[in-house]
Amino acid sequence: MVSLNIPTIFHSTKHNKETNMTSVPNARLEGKKVIVTGGSRGIGKAIVHALAKEGAHILFTYNSNSEASKTTEQEAKQYNPNILAMQADASSSAAMKNVFEFLPKNFGGEADMYIANAFAEAVFAPTAFMTEDGYDKMFASVKGHYFALQQAAHHVKEGGRIIVLSSGAAAQPGMASGAYSGAKSALEKFALSLAKELGSKRISVNVVSPGVTETEGLVAPKEMVDALVAQTPFGRLGKPEDVAGAVLALCLPETAWITGQVVQANGGIL
After folding, report:
1. Does residue 42 lie in a domain region?
2. pTM of the predicted model as reported, rounded to 2 decimal places
């Protein structure tokens, strides 16, 4: 594991450049170098696992939970050894610049893919009661995403992939979610514009927009959860693996023609 609080602090786990092993026969992402932000828990963790199973060499970031990041790193290494965790605040432009510069020094080349999953604390409040502090926390993350995408535009290889995780709230804002919905909408517009800008380099840029997903970050009254489940044709909440499956699909060679799209990974919620 690597800890990054500029300056970078290194821990004992090292990437093995000589090993090209995977437990999955015919791995579809064998040797692809991928950066995943917010990869220690929830949807991010499921993404790391899904890509590791397909042979990807992954550098994932975490903000503060070093124990969770160690667990994710160790679990993903059961599929292949080319997994490395790095502490970095995804809302910090300087920290993300260091992440993109760190990857080629330790993985032997620039990123093939960048998956922007991390987001600062979500703050829900009616417009009449939203505080400046709550608003600023969310939009600091929006700024960080924008400048991380700038780094991705410089560093992701020609023919690569950029995937931004958004939220169903961007398309269907609810009560007390005005600022959150606006923040997620901004991320989507960043990505869709970047898709046009990077088309000449054959870099596809897409958004995966999860619906309500069963993670430890889901804090909602049972009545609200039951109402959401009732609106879903499958009759259940989404799982992190459901969203990771959509991300994986957009990473595969067969989906290279898809760009500038928002994929609703929400179980068809009405």
Report:
1. yes
2. 0.88
